[in-house]
UniProtKB/TrEMBL annotation:
Family to which the UniProt record says this protein belongs: Belongs to the isocitrate and isopropylmalate dehydrogenases family.
Record-linked Gene3D superfamilies: Isopropylmalate Dehydrogenase (3.40.718.10)
Matching PANTHER family: DECARBOXYLATING DEHYDROGENASES-ISOCITRATE, ISOPROPYLMALATE, TARTRATE (PTHR11835), ISOCITRATE DEHYDROGENASE [NAD] SUBUNIT ALPHA, MITOCHONDRIAL (PTHR11835:SF34)
Keywords carried by this UniProt record: Oxidoreductase
Superkingdom to which the source organism belongs: Bacteria
Official protein name in the record: Isocitrate/isopropylmalate dehydrogenase family protein
Domain called Isopropylmalate dehydrogenase-like: residue spans: 3-350
Organism of provenance: Ponticoccus alexandrii
InterPro entries linked: IsoCit/isopropylmalate_DH_CS (IPR019818), IsoPropMal-DH-like_dom (IPR024084)
Length: 356
């Protein structure tokens, strides 16, 4: 038995989570995965019911589950923290110690991506520190400083977190054809903090003679990606650079609707689309479920390794094949990919492919 906790979230969350569930059920039937799926409320619906966007019972359930599937959340619109408006994504990343955010950007077969050149890269983003370490501690004005017209932000970089994100990046590179890691930084200006990050990545690079390695400044990387994203393989970087570059890479590869991600730690993992809750299209059936479906394929691969259950990697591959098949026809994909299917129909089409 493998237990999965599913959390709808806000905006398009309930729609893409429902479609993803259909896909998971098909994979469960075909590969006898023994999934035990439970749902719990977070976000606005939890705020209404229990006064907090992430109840303690949900955190406990996430800690107890083998894997978590998190729908997008509109945390920017929540009430203040004192009134229960916590960012569920941030809380779960912290409580489950999900230190690596793995964000692939891959152009589907036959598609050409935003610049006419296919992209197949993965951003490995440090997920626990940087400018986003602890927003209350790391950013302030007024109450922290005598000058209410000045704000300061602190950026935290530790050896341990840099080391383990580098290890995750090189382990991933070993599974890929190009076997290349690029560390992205701004150590020409942030000499101490990005310097420390680079020291750790270099130390890990030295232990991996089978993986080629280079370093690129974050500003140059933005230009490189637009010019020729197809040249890049694994990008290893700190929290904020990874946040920004992975959105750029996702859009170049084919759009945010395709952008999957996995938050991974030693003992827990959480599937989560790269995009937000897209309130502009919520409730219209236009949301592309591929982002979350692809994230679940990543979770299944992670579970295959963790529980030594090859059926999960077979299921992950079947999900990816089903996704590619659905994206290949306008009848089975959503409008962001030039199709005419709605969210549920696209989920059903992927499930149908998996069922064979
Ligand atoms: P949030 O405040 O929660 O981040 P947002 O308005 O920034 O929400 P995002 O979800 O980050 O919206 O995405 C930006 C835009 O990309 C959306 O407005 C939406 O049009 C599009 N988009 C995002 N996700 C999807 C998806 N799964 N399918 C189709 N379009 C999407
Ligand atoms: Mg957003």
């Amino acid at each position: 038995m493998t237990s999965i906790l599913m959390l709808d979230g806000d905006g398009i969350g309930p729609e893409i989570v429902a479609a993803t569930r259909t896909v998971m059920a098909a994979a469960d039937r075909r590969f006898a995965l023994g999934l035990h799926i439970e749902s719990a409320e977070i976000g606005f619906s939890a705020l209404k019911g229990s006064g907090t966007s992430i109840p303690g019972t949900v955190i406990d359930a996430a800690l107890a589950a083998d894997g978590v599937v998190l729908g997008p959340v509109s945390h920017n619109d929540y009430p203040p923290v004192a009134e229960g408006g916590l960012n569920p994504s941030g809380v779960l990343r912290k409580r489950l110690d999900l230190f690596a955010n793995i964000r692939p950007a891959k152009t589907p077969p036959g598609a050409s991506g935003a610049t006419g050149k296919p992209v197949d890269l993965v951003t490995v983003r440090e997920n626990t520190e940087g400018f986003y370490a602890d927003r209350n501690m790391a950013e302030g004005s007024g109450e922290l400083l005598p000058d209410a017209d000045m704000a300061l932000a602190l950026r935290k970089v530790t050896r341990r977190a840099s080391r383990r994100i580098a290890e995750a990046a090189f382990a991933l590179a070993l599974t890929r054809e190009a076997r290349h890691v690029t560390a992205v930084h701004k150590a020409n200006v942030l000499r101490v903090s990005d310097g420390l990050f680079l020291e750790e990545v270099r130390a890990v690079a030295a232990l991996h003679p089978g993986v080629t390695y280079d370093e690129v400044l974050v500003d140059a990387m933005a230009a490189h990606l637009v010019r020729d994203a197809g040249r890049h393989d694994v990008i290893c970087t700190t929290n904020m650079y990874g946040d920004i570059l992975s959105d750029l890479a996702a859009e170049l590869a084919g759009g945010l609707g395709l952008a999957a991600s996995l938050n991974a730690g030693e003992t827990h993992a959480m599937a989560q689309a790269q995009h937000g809750s897209a309130p502009d299209i919520a409730g219209t059936g236009r949301a592309n479920p591929a982002s979350l479906v692809g994230s679940v394929a990543m979770l299944f691969d992670w579970l295959a390794g963790r529980k030594d259950t090859p059926a999960f990697s077979e299921a992950a591959q079947a999900i990816r094949d089903g996704l590619d098949a659905a994206l290949a026809s306008p009848d089975t994909c959503t409008p962001d990919q030039g199709g005419r299917a709605d969210t549920a129909a696209m989920g059903a089409a992927i499930a149908h492919q998996i069922a064979g």
